[in-house]
Amino acid sequence: MDRYISAPLKKEEIEELRSGDYVYITGTIYTARDAAHKRMYETIMEGKELPLSMKDNVIYYMGPSPAKEGCPIGSAGPTTASRMDKYTPTLLDMGLKGMIGKGKRSKEVQEAIVRNGAVYFAAVGGAGALLSKCITDSEILAYEDLGTEAIRKLTVKNLPAIVVIDSAGRNLYETAVKDYKK
Fold first, then answer.
1. What's in the keyword line of the UniProt record (predicted)?
2. Which of 3, 9, 95, 99 has its CA 20 to 30 A from that of 52?
3. H-helix or E-strand spanning residue 3
4. What is the pLDDT of residue 149?
5. Residue 6 and residue 10: Cα distance in Å, rounded?
6. Average pLDDT estimate for 51-64
7. What is the CATH number of domain 2-181?
8. How far is residue 104's CA from residue 167's CA, in Å, rounded to a whole number?
């Protein structure tokens, strides 16, 4: 089923999403990859405040290429989500409600998704140039010294993704294999 949702995410919208749904996300999301996650985690462990609130927000695991003149961002494809798994349960417990990436998630992340009523989306790898057309604004929010891995605030319009793990724990990567074998 196709669904149009807004970011930051609302509890009611998350609860209606089902593994396998196609979604189009409009609103404000943030980027963060490996180095930014490590730095955020260290900040949390030091008892300091993060540069953005996790509450109801979506993090896109993406490091863009440089923007062409007149464009808000360069190619904006997803990176492998499992590289952030070490840090993700902590961020989910702090209120993060959505993640966009590619690939499988650990058991600990899946449990944290269910525990916190969150959702994991997959974006199509290799389609970064097309996905960038859904980004209407991009600004570096924190960790500028990390270059492409800096945290960015993005404004997106109809960014396409697929619900992989929904708030009830249904996992498309598991159910699709079972359905295929039938």
1. Lyase
2. 3
3. strand 2-7
4. 93
5. 8
6. 95
7. 3.20.130.10
8. 16
